[in-house]
């Protein structure tokens, strides 16, 4: 591990060299046959400071059992996660209701409604930050091969994570899940099955604010933004935007299929097998698909 710049890095409670270890975010499982020097070198690069080509993350290893490889738990300090979030231009909702790039300098704008340093970044965003830093560990000019493996050549700027995975020096890399959060999501999952309204676009939101500002939309407050569904927001917070969008559309599409499915079932039961009947059902499907896509 590279030396610290000053003693402050060791004494600060949330610094890289402090005794306080944040919860595990990522787990790395090395192959049982991976050379010890290769494992130690990789872990040193994870813990090293950015100016030395490291990720500046925290690592702790499980007690190694006979016949098993090294299992490393990777985490990061709160300040480090915030710095990575700013560097990667993560989009966050501010106190004004607008979605903008996260900034450590304007941290107060993102600490609203009970938000703290522990909750300002969602679990999915913390996982993204840690994985981004791991993938950013690159081989240096003077590093020609992986320690202990002269045959595994390294090129300047090559990702060490990709090399270790390709050569099977690392068996698995995965984020560590929170069992309590997963159980809570599973419970809400079943409750939210029939809470999706696929044709909500036909039911306008008539609220006091919409009536007051209906004549002059420019005077409408900027923070009057319709919040997302609570269940969808929890999925986004834990799994990320792409997974939340997938399940949100899946629920919407499933509920939207109730109408044509019901009509098709009625047609099958009451069918008189006429050309007009099929033409009407085809016309209905055309209108239904158009409304769904709009």
TrEMBL record:
Under InterPro entries, the record lists:
Anoctamin, Anoctamin_TM
Pfam families referenced in this protein's UniProt entry, alphabetically: Anoctamin
Give the GO cellular component terms, alphabetically: plasma membrane
Q: Tell where it localizes.
A: Membrane
Record's keyword terms, sorted? Membrane, Transmembrane, Transmembrane helix
Q: Which family does it belong to?
A: Belongs to the anoctamin family.
PANTHER family this protein is in? ANOCTAMIN
The name of this protein is Anoctamin
Organism expressing this protein natively: Cherax quadricarinatus
């Amino acid at each position: 591990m590279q030396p610290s710049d000053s003693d402050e890095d060791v004494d600060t409670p949330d610094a890289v060299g402090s005794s306080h270890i944040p919860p595990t975010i990522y787990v790395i499982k090395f192959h049982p046959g991976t050379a010890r020097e290769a494992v130690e070198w990789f872990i040193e690069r994870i813990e090293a400071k950015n100016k030395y080509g490291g990720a500046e993350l925290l690592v702790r290893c499980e007690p190694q059992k006979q016949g098993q490889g090294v299992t490393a738990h990777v985490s990061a300090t709160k300040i480090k996660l915030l710095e990575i979030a700013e560097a990667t231009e993560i989009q966050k909702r501010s106190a004004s209701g607008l979605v903008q790039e996260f900034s450590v300098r304007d941290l107060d704008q993102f600490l609203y409604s009970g938000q703290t340093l522990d909750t300002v970044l969602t679990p999915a965003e913390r996982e993204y930050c840690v994985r981004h830093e791991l993938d950013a560990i690159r081989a240096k000019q003077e590093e020609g091969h992986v320690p202990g493996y002269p045959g595994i050549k390294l090129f300047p700027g090559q990702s060490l994570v990709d090399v270790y995975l390709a050569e099977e020096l690392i068996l698995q890399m995965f984020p560590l899940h929170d069992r309590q959060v997963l159980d809570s999501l599973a419970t809400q999952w079943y409750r939210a099955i029939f809470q999706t309204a696929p044709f909500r676009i036909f039911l306008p939101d008539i609220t006091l604010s919409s009536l007051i500002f209906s004549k002059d939309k420019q005077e409408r407050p900027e923070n009057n933004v319709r919040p997302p569904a609570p269940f969808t927001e929890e999925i986004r917070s834990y799994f990320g935007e792409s997974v939340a969008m997938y399940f949100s559309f899946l629920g919407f599409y499933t509920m939207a299929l109730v109408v044509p499915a019901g009509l098709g079932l009625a047609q099958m039961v009451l069918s008189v097998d006429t050309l007009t009947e099929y033409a009407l059902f085809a016309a209905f499907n055309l209108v239904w698909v158009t409304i769904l896509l709009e």
